[in-house]
Design brief:
The chain is of the alpha+beta class and 563 residues long. The chain folds into three domains: 2-134, no CATH class; 158-405, Intergrase catalytic core (hpI Integrase, Chain A, Orthogonal Bundle), CATH 1.10.443; 439-536, no CATH class. Helix content is 49%, strand content 14%. The protein contains 18 helices and 17 strands. The chain has helices at residues 9-22, 28-49, 60-70, 94-114, 116-119, 136-153, 157-180, 220-240, 244-248, 287-300, 341-355, 369-382, 387-394, 399-405, 410-426, 438-450, 485-505, 508-536; strands spanning 72-78, 84-90, 186-189, 192-195, 209-211, 217-219, 255-259, 266-272, 281-284, 310-314, 319-324, 329-332, 335-338, 456-458, 478-480, 553-556, 559-562.
Length: 563
Amino acid sequence: MDRYHLKCRPVRDAIVAYLLERSPAVDYGTVKALSATLALRFWADLEHHHPGISSLHLSAEVSTAWKARLATKVVRKRQPDGSVVETTEPRKSAVAVKTQVRAFYLDLAQWALEEPEKWAGWVAPCPISAAEIVVKKADRQRKSRMDQRTRERLPAVPILVKVAERRLKEAQARLDALNEAPLGTTFTVFGETFTVPRTTVRVSGRPTRAWDDQGAARDFGAEERLAFWAWAGIETLRHTGIRIEELLELGHHSIISYTLPTTGQVVPLLQIAPSKSDQERLLLVTPELADVLSTVVSRVRDADGKVPVIPSYDWHERTWNSPMPLLFQESQAGEHHRLSPRFFRDAIHQTLAATGLLDSLGKPLTFQPHDFRRIFITDSILNGLPPHIAQVIAGHEHIGTTMGYAAIYPADAIEAHRAFIARRRALRPVEEYRTVTPEEWDEFLGHFERRKLAMGDCGRAYGTDCAHEHACVRCPVLIVHATERPRMVEIRDNLQARIQEAEREGWLGEIEGLQSSLTHAEEKLAQLDAQIARKQEAIDLGIPTFREIVARTTTVGTQQEPS
C-alpha cells in the first residue's frame, strides 16, 4: 500500500484493514490487483485532483469528476520514427474498477453490522449505484473482441506450427554442425559460414557460440534452447488447451496410463493439477502430444535417467511449492530451475516474428498462451465435440464460461443447422419430402393472394374453405385494418338503412339476416375503436415503491416464532 504514497492516514488504514480481511479467501495476485484499484485508481487519484480530501464520504461533484477521469486513459505509443505520441482512449476496465470500489463500500457497511467497533467509523454512502456497474454491454464487447481475436488467430496456427518445427530443425542442425567442427575452423550450414572459437571454457569442451562473416557472435546453444521450448510449448498448449500455469506444473508423474476395461487397451492420460478452479482433471494424450511429451522427458532427464526433482515458485500465491519432477525445466550453470511464463511468451513471439504474419491492422500478429486455450475450445466444438464435454476437458465450472471461449462462425452455425435438418429428414418417411409441383406451389401462393379483402385480410388457414360463404362482415377471422374504419362505418349505415327499408316494405325474411350482419359490424367497429384508443392512450404506471413487510408471529405452545 505504501508504494502509492497515500497522504490520508485513516483512509490508508481502512484500505489496509479491508485487504487483510479479504486476503484469506483470495490469492496474492487478487490482493495485489485489488490494492492497485483501491489505492491507485481510486484514492490516490482523488488525493491528486482534490488535495486535502480525508473522508470516504464523497460529494456528488467529487464522485462524478472521478468517474469521468476513470472512463478514459492516456496511452503512449512509439511511432516508427522513434517519437512518442500520447492518445486518449476509453478505459476497458472502468466497469471492473467501479465494481471493486462499490464492493469496498458495501463490504464496510455489511461488516459494520457484525463488528461495529471495528468498521463503523469507515462506513459512508456508496458513490457508485448498481446501474453504473451493469456489465452486460462490457461483457458483450469483450466477447466480441475475444471472438475476433480467436477467428484471426485460428487460421494462423498451422503456419505457426510449421515455422516452429522448421526453426527447431535449423537450430539443431546449426548446433550439431558447431559441435562437429574442430576448434578454430570454419563450417557452413544453410548457406552461412561461421568460425569456431579457438578455445572454450565450457566443461564439455565444446563452445556454443560462433562468428559469422560480419564478425557478429551467434549463440547456437541459446537459439536451439529457445526454438525447442517454443515448439514444445506451442504443441502442448494447442493439443490440450490448458492454462500456462498448468503447463508449467506438469510433472513426470502427470503422465499416467489407463487400461480400458472392455478391450484391455492401454490409453495414456495427462493429469492436470488443480489450478484456477481447484479442479483436477485428466486429458487424453493424442499420438502427437505423446511424441512431444516423450521428447521433453528425454531432454530433461539426467545421466541416471531420472527427471530432476526441483522446487517451484507460485507467483499467484507467492509461496514455494514442494519439489516435483517438473517437465518444463532446464539446467543452467549446473542448477535446475523451472521455466517462466515470460520465457514462453518471448519464445512464442520470436516464432511468430519468423512467420511474417500480420493482423487485420497490418501489424505483426501476436499470440498469448491463453489464445491457444480459446482456439482449442473453438476448434473442438466446431468439429463436433459436445459443449458439455469441452467444459470438462477445459476444467470450467460452468458451461457458460466454455461457450464464452468458443468463437462460433455464422457460416459454421448455418452448416451445423443444415446437417441437423439432413439427419432429421433421414429419420422421416421419404414421401413427406417429395418435390412440390408447380401447380401446388401456385395454389399455395394464390391462397395468400385471395386472403386480401377490401376491409383487411382473411385469417383462415391454408387449405380450408370459407365457412361463412364469403359473408365477411359476420366472419370472426376477418382482420380489419384501422385505415378501413370509414368503410366499415359506411357498411353499418347501409345495413341500418336496409333494415329500415325492409321494415317499411314488410320484407320480414331479410330483417333477421341484416340484423345479424349489423351486430357483427358494430362489434368490429367497437374492436377497432378500442385498438385505436390503446395506441393513442398513455398509461401512467406510477412510481415504483418499496413494499412494506410486516413481521407476523404465530403462537406455538408458549413460544412465539416469526412466520
